[in-house]
UniProtKB/TrEMBL annotation:
The organism's taxonomic lineage, starting at the top: Bacteria, Pseudomonadati, Pseudomonadota, Alphaproteobacteria, Hyphomicrobiales
Organism: Metarhizobium album
PROSITE patterns from the UniProt entry: PROK_CO2_ANHYDRASE_2
Family the UniProt entry places it in: Belongs to the beta-class carbonic anhydrase family.
Tagged with keyword Iron: no
Protein name per its UniProtKB record: Carbonic anhydrase
Obligatory cofactor(s): Zn(2+)
Length: 230
């Protein structure tokens, strides 16, 4: 029998009984005033690396784009179907986000495929193979490094891939111009799904390190709910 997935219906019921009640006003205000997220987060499709869960975001806070292995292709205005570039264009040009975060993660299946020279196409279209070829030069270099173990090669390419995406991000004129004017910042992050660790990329060196969470200065929350007399 054709049936809508029951985990979704169960989850939706919980949402309406709990989170939605807490966020009702916020949803209403966001519907009326539109969204103004300040952050574009680019993450993998992997079910274990959901940004809204990791960062505990509220509705309207994160503009999220997910694709296989959280990659950004280079700027190619060639009339083809560019879903990733379209989301990026909208976030930067229309929403005017202040920050772009490219977040990779451990045990990424897309990265694993890129490191496997024997990987066969999953279908005649070989969409994943074509998509992961964005990483081909880096993948080939890391593949040929026999001093590293397989898991070290995997983590290395996951992080190289984040820097590669950031380099491609900057080939989009809207990104590089706003970044130069100090209106936009680009960041890298890597999430270890096995232990919940988040690693942040150093903007100067490209190295990844654990953030000092004690140092974080919280900014006042963005007000999406208009005061009653407004
Ligand atoms: Zn992944």
């Amino acid at each position: 029998m054709h049936r809508f997935p029951s985990p979704l219906l169960d989850g939706y019921r919980n949402f309406m009984d709990g989170r939605y009640i807490e966020e009702r006003e916020r949803y209403r205000a966001l519907a009326e005033n539109g969204q103004k997220p300040q952050i574009l987060l680019i993450a993998c499709c992997d079910s274990r690396a959901a940004p809204e869960i990791i960062f505990g975001s509220r509705p309207g806070e994160l503009f999220v784009m997910r694709n296989v292995a959280n990659m950004i292709p280079p700027y190619e205005p060639d009339g083809h179907f560019h879903a990733t570039s379209a989301a990026l264009e909208y976030a930067v040009q229309s929403l005017r986000v202040k920050d772009i975060v490219v977040m990779g993660h451990g045990r990424c299946g897309g990265i694993q495929a890129a490191l496997d020279p024997a990987a066969e196409p999953l279908s005649p279209g070989d969409f994943i193979g074509r998509w992961m070829s964005l990483l081909k030069p880096a993948a080939e270099q890391i593949q040929s490094n026999d001093v590293m173990t397989a898991s070290e090669r995997q983590t290395a390419l996951e992080r190289v891939s984040i820097r590669n995406s950031i380099r491609n991000l900057r080939t989009f004129p809207c990104v590089s111009i706003l970044e130069e004017r100090g209106k936009l910042q680009v960041h890298g992050a890597w999430f270890d799904i096995s232990n919940g660790e988040l690693w942040i990329m150093d903007a100067k060196t490209g190295d990844f390190r654990r953030p000092d969470l004690e140092e974080v200065v919280s900014e006042p929350e963005q007000d999406v709910v208009a005061p009653p007399d407004a």
